[in-house]
Specification:
- This protein is mainly β.
- About 0% of the residues lie in helices and about 45% in strands.
- A hairpin with a 2-residue loop joins β6 and β7.
Length: about 290
């Protein structure tokens, strides 16, 4: 979407946006593209010349296209928001690692989260985002720990939707719910795979029919947590037929999963500074 006051040029890996301001009293330095300030300003224009990997651009793969989206905002006016979008053809050698935001935690440095579609044995990225109905969709999420203490990565919630952005009217199918319960495993062979490292989590999700003829987007909420701090709200549980709910990281403590078909509320108060929870999106074709 481009407003008459906004000129947008989408180049490979780079975006130039020029906003022409018609209000004489506006402070052009207060415009933001995502979290980026203008590259330069003049009497009437705010100019942003930025890479698509900067400024908190959101990246989504839809079939053969990559879509980068962001918002132009004005700091002193919360109602001022203009959507910005650039669409590119997906290169043949580009694999769908969909969303790579960087999050800061309180004085502990930066955490870099990744989520993507993988090949069948999780040894590398998927060469296609198309999966036959009934086959498994291998999904890997990870967090780069950098200078952090060891962290446990969890998928707290995942839903399938027919929209790239979750909207009140979106049709949803719950995949992971109730603080880490893989509810889809109640009706399918979907499961968490054994971990190779605590900072990664592998999910084998059986491809299902959802949204007739429509694109399917998988929206997930990730949590990085203290490996020794698992409880009813910080866990990874899947349902094993003829056995019941099982905790991925230590089946001896599978009682943490007992709440998966009720309400998983914490029995104790934990500091919000112990973890961080970005939201990410995947778009496989089924």
């Amino acid at each position: 979407m481009v407003d008459e006051d906004m000129k947008l040029e989408c180049r490979p890996d780079f975006v130039t946006l020029v906003w022409t301001e018609r209000r004489s009293q506006a402070d052009l330095s207060l415009f933001r593209l995502g979290n980026c300030s203008p590259t330069r300003i003049s009497a009437t224009e705010a100019v942003f010349s930025v890479y698509v990997n900067d400024c908190n651009f959101r990246r989504i793969v839809t079939g053969d296209h990559l879509m980068y989206t962001n918002d132009l905002t004005y700091s002193s006016s919360p109602d001022f928001t203009y959507p910005v979008a650039c669409a590119y053809e997906r290169p043949n050698n580009w694999y769908p690692l969909i969303y790579e935001p960087v999050f800061s935690t309180y004085g502990l440095g930066d955490l870099v989260f990744h989520i993507g579609l993988m090949n069948a044995d999780f040894s590398g990225p998927a060469e296609s985002s198309t999966f036959p109905l009934g086959s498994f969709i291998p999904i890997m999420a990870s967090v780069s720990q950098m200078t952090h203490q060891p962290l446990l990565l969890l998928l707290e919630e995942c839903v399938a939707a027919t929209t790239a952005e979750l909207q009140p009217e979106s049709t949803l199918y719950p995949i992971i719910a109730n603080k880490g319960c893989l509810v889809d495993s109640l009706v399918s062979p979907s499961k968490f795979e054994q971990r190779q490292k605590s900072s990664e989590i592998h999910l084998s999700l059986q491809a299902f029919r959802f949204g007739l003829g429509e694109r399917v987007f998988i929206h997930c909420k990730l949590v990085a947590w203290d490996p020794n701090g698992m409880d009813r709200t910080k866990k990874a549980c899947h349902y094993v037929k003829e056995h019941g709910w099982e905790l991925l990281d230590n089946s001896a403590y599978s009682n943490l999963c007992d709440c998966c078909e009720s309400d998983c509320k914490s029995r104790r108060t934990r500091s919000t500074e112990s973890g961080t929870d970005p939201s990410c999106t995947l778009a496989p074709s089924i």
